[in-house]
Amino acid sequence: MFMNTMQAAWISRYGGSDVLEVRSVGKPQITPDQVLVRVRASALNRADLLQRQGKYPPPPGFPPEIPGIEFAGEVAETGSGVAAWKPGDRVFGLLGGGAQAEYVVTHERLLAEVPKNLDWAQAAAVPEAFITAHDALWIQARLRPSETVLITAVGSGVGLAAVQLCRALRAVPFGTSRTLDKIAQAKSLGLEAGLAVRENFDELVAAAEQWTGQKGINVVLDLVGGPYAKACQKLMAVKGRMMLVGTVAGGSFDVDSRYVMSKRLEIRGTVLRARSLEEKIQVTQAFAAEVVPLLASGVVRPAIDSQFSLAEIAKAHQRLESNETFGKVVVTMV
Fold first, then answer.
1. N or C: which end of the chain has fewer CB within 10 A?
2. Cα separation of 177 and 186, whole Å?
3. Beta bridge partners of 175
4. What average pLDDT does this structure show over 241-267?
5. pLDDT band per the 50, 70, 90 thresholds, residue 253
6. What pTM was estimated for this model as a whole?
7. Cα angle vertex 50, ends 317, 17, to 5°?
8. pLDDT (tens digit, 9 = 90+) per residue, 29-40?
9. Are 43 and 328 in contact (CB under 8 A)?
10. Residue 148 in contact with residue 170, Cβ under 8 Å?
């Protein structure tokens, strides 16, 4: 019998991980230009934690009660106007929300094909990390071979994707973390050197000078915000570019015009979730053309911290909130 319901993670009210449930809800319906995907795995992001806390609602059209912004799965059904996909195709992509469920609907051009060498958990760990890092570094920051890059929170999913994409472009990645073990682990993926940073940012400035022979860092990918963004202005090279991606250490910081003006720095913020459909299509298609082949050939690969079933969604949130993760926390629907 054809079922019009599905299982989904559900935010019963705003609060801690204990507000999460698994509920039977209505299966989404497609329009002519949409694809229905049977989700096999999703991955957690800070956006999911904030949505659960009532601090980061999804864009209009996405369910506020169902978290999840990335997924991997099989095409289950296509709209009458869809030409790019057919049932059974393995796909992954980003959504405004609702991905931690058995089914999602999305525009056909917001999907990319999953390489054959990736299983579902690996595929689910890719979209947010690699699309964010690729768009920020390769496209917006205009990263070039031999340039130096500083990645804060280098042990995060985006951080580890950024390390590998730097190496793929023959740039030189450096990183920060709160613990030395994550620096050591990131070196296995191509990190040149790193520093454990807690409160002494003068050490970071000195380290950057040593790493670059006093030339300064060309590109900063700041996944943390607050004092990190302030300190990084001092350690950047002339015509350096800073990409602001995260705010876990604070949503505001001082802009020091002595450095911004004298070095002619660029400071740019970026976010994917709030972009228009056309902008999201552009970054997805660029990812499909430039990054998916690197995944297929093994030049870059996803980093998974841990896996949980949908029934363990609360435990998955607790793991991400522990700040002990190295790579992505994956939730499987299989």
1. N
2. 10
3. 151, 194
4. 91
5. confident
6. 0.95
7. 35
8. 999 999 999 999
9. yes
10. no
